[in-house]
TrEMBL record:
It is found in: Endomembrane system. This is Mannan endo-1,6-alpha-mannosidase. GO terms for cellular component: endomembrane system. InterPro entries: 6-hairpin_glycosidase_sf, Glyco_hydro_76, Mannan-1_6-alpha_mannosidase. SUPFAM superfamilies: Six-hairpin glycosidases. It comes from Letharia columbiana. Gene3D superfamilies: 1.50.10.20. The lineage of its organism: Eukaryota, Fungi, Dikarya, Ascomycota, Pezizomycotina.
């Protein structure tokens, strides 16, 4: 199978369809009990999903590295997982995993406290770093317990990631934007994609609101406008995967992923709030939200699915997790743009009910598959992404039970540092960095696409995603 740069980094070797069917058919279907009218039931279901999620995490085992997931998972997905576990504490007030999350988040900060870890040079792109930065931002906004004073602080970590990425803005090709990769020697350095720019946009919007520093908002506006101008977002607010610098971004790959819609929706909702209800940002929020309907099935109605890979059964390790991010960012957007709630919650409720039914596999009868549209008929898959998806959509139903995320003016305690970060390979000081003069040496991305071969008597299959 031809592998394209637009695909994300992971390759998955998995059991044959026949074997999966046999495994699924032999598992007792107990599923997770979920009553959306009962907050305690929602918390109980979320607790089960969180527990099962962490059965895949080995970073707290003796001799293993905190903050890392085992193969076939890439480093970025660990950052995404910690972000979802920070959400878990926010929604449920269950603190049993907080120490584990803090340990992992701080272990991976790198020598410049900006999530540029030397041992991830060949696997870290701008999107990867962005997921860790957004997790740190969530910790600041949701008042996740602050690290010890001698350790890096959540807000400063988010600022460091933003500063690094601002230094990589590339005006030479496609009139701006971030490349997918950070380092020139990695496959995909010639690719600019929606998720890398979406993470930067999302983080800039949230930093603007949290700190009150308008420079972050200016960067967010600039990034959104560039995404639209280069046609990674069309006039109907559909977000496409990416395009190549070698063709001046004229070859738009029109694959649509849930997480691209989600990352831009939350950023736009925060900008709506930051601008005190700007009609322009309201229009953008509603445009993105309406376009997001492509990811919700008509049969069964309102159930989220990954339209690019679920129907043809081509989802891989990374794809399995994408719905988790749309789920969490859909409901997070409600706190900043309340007018979307009547559209969002029917999707969330239907999807959560279906996801709980799909948590009917594995040896315990409660491991979650990906295909929520199949209800209690387990699809035969299980893993970090599937667990994060179910956890995110289930706990999202507690959105009315939690407070609005804080800022430094409304109770935020996380300490910031506007000059944080190592520049991702160059010198950078703060978000006021010139938006026009960017050093080319910093603009690249990591992410050599290394396939993990799992040898099995049943066989293996290969795929890669953007």
């Amino acid at each position: 199978m031809r592998l394209t740069p637009c695909s994300r980094k992971s390759c998955l070797s998995w059991l044959s369809t026949t074997a999966l069917s046999l495994l699924a058919g032999s598992t007792l279907t107990t599923a997770i009990t979920l009553d959306l009218q009962d907050p305690n039931s929602i918390k109980s279901a979320a607790s089960t999903c969180a527990y099962n999620l962490l059965t895949f995490y080995t970073g707290n085992n003796t001799g293993d590295v905190p903050g890392n997931l085992p193969q076939p998972y890439y480093w970025w997905e660990a950052g995404a997982m910690f972000g979802i576990l920070i959400d878990y504490y926010y929604y449920t007030n269950d603190s049993q995993y907080n120490d584990l999350v803090t340990q992992g988040m701080l272990w991976q900060v790198g020598p410049d406290n900006d999530y540029m870890t030397p041992n991830q040079t060949k696997t870290e792109g701008n999107d990867d770093q962005g997921f860790w930065g957004m997790a740190a931002m969530s910790a600041a906004e949701q008042k996740f317990p602050d690290p010890p004073s001698a350790q890096p602080q959540w807000l400063a970590l988010a600022q460091a990631v933003f500063n690094d990425q601002a230094s990589r803005w590339d005006n030479q090709y496609c009139d701006g934007g971030l490349r997918w990769q950070i380092f020139t020697f990695n496959t995909g350095y010639d690719y600019k994609n929606s998720i890398s720019n979406g993470c930067f946009f999302n983080l800039g919007a949230r930093l603007a609101l949290y700190t009150g520093n308008d420079t972050y908002a200016q960067w967010a506006e600039k990034t959104f406008n560039w995404t639209q101008a280069v046609s990674l977002m069309d006039q109907n607010y559909h977000f496409y995967d990416g395009a190549h610098t070698t063709l001046n971004c004229s070859d738009i790959n029109r694959v649509q992923w849930t997480y691209n819609a989600g990352v831009f929706l939350l950023g736009a909702s925060v900008m709506y709030n930051y601008t005190n209800g700007s009609p322009l940002w309201q229009e953008r929020v509603m445009g993105i939200l309406n376009a997001t309907s492509i990811f919700f099935a008509t049969n069964p109605p309102n159930v989220m699915y990954e339209v690019a890979c679920e129907p043809p059964n081509t989802c891989d390790t990374d794809n399995y997790s994408f719905k988790a991010y749309l789920a969490r960012w859909l409901v997070a957007s409600i706190k900043y743009a309340p007018f979307i709630q009547t559209t969002v919650m029917p999707w969330v409720q239907a999807s959560a009910t279906a996801a709980a039914l799909q948590c009917s596999g594995g040896t315990n009868g409660q491991m979650c598959g990906m295909k929520w549209t199949q209800g209690s008929t387990w699809d035969g898959t299980q893993g970090v992404g599937q667990q994060m998806g179910a956890l995110s959509i289930i706990q999202a139903n507690l959105i009315d039970q939690v407070t609005v995320p804080v800022t430094n003016k409304t109770g935020g305690t996380s300490k910031g540092n506007a000059a944080a970060g190592g520049g991702g390979g160059i010198s950078t000081s703060n978000p006021a960095l010139s938006q026009n003069v960017i050093t080319r040496g910093s603009k690249a991305g990591a992410g050599i696409l290394t396939c993990l071969v799992l040898i099995s008597v049943i066989g293996c299959s290969w795929w890669m995603i953007a």
